[in-house]
What we know:
Helices cover 49% and strands 7% of the residues. It is mainly alpha-helical.
Amino acid sequence: MNRDLFIKQILPATVDITPIGRISDELSPEEFAPVAEQFFADILEIHKADISGLEGYGEFDEENQLENATLRQFLVEEFAEEKEGYWKNWTRMFETTMLSKAFFYKYYDKMLEYAAFCEGKRFLVNNNTFFCNMIVKEDGRVGFPDWSRSGVCDFLLDFAIMDLNKPYLQIPEKLYDYFKKNDINAEHFHERFLCMAYYKGIATLMWHASIDDEESCISIMKSISELEERIWVIK
């Protein structure tokens, strides 16, 4: 089944996958601040999707199925060296690119350390909520046209991606306050956010290293290395 049709069938009608409007990447920090809660609310609508007929974790394959029985398995398989395709034998990048082996495994190990807190948290995720992929419509609502990386995971993944993209917007800090204000269950928020952020952070770092994008690599490493200190002071 076509991915967009598949996603449309399981998403709530409140989620717009064909939005027309302004690319949210164009918003200045001053413009984003008053609409941050609208972003949070619209992203949370994604996580209300009915996935009762789906088993497993990870990104959907070409048949819209999930290949991993546990979240930990998904995380480990994401960085398996023997994967076919673009990432086969990817660890050679430690010798041929600016990808640091010490940096990578420091946060890979932290990701796995916190993975137990995300186990059992199964929600549909867009998994591509970089600001360049979200559209702000005329009515102020946010739409999501790109579902190419979608799957099932802890819903905090979609918010961790936003923070990786623009840490200066203080997404986890604002999100935690939003959860408290709206009585949304944030059990083990700190550990879960870190797990999802480290997963997406090192995966994105690998990609930018593979295309020799030094500027982005430096920015991502800075974001990853500063995150834990930010997260643990959130109360």
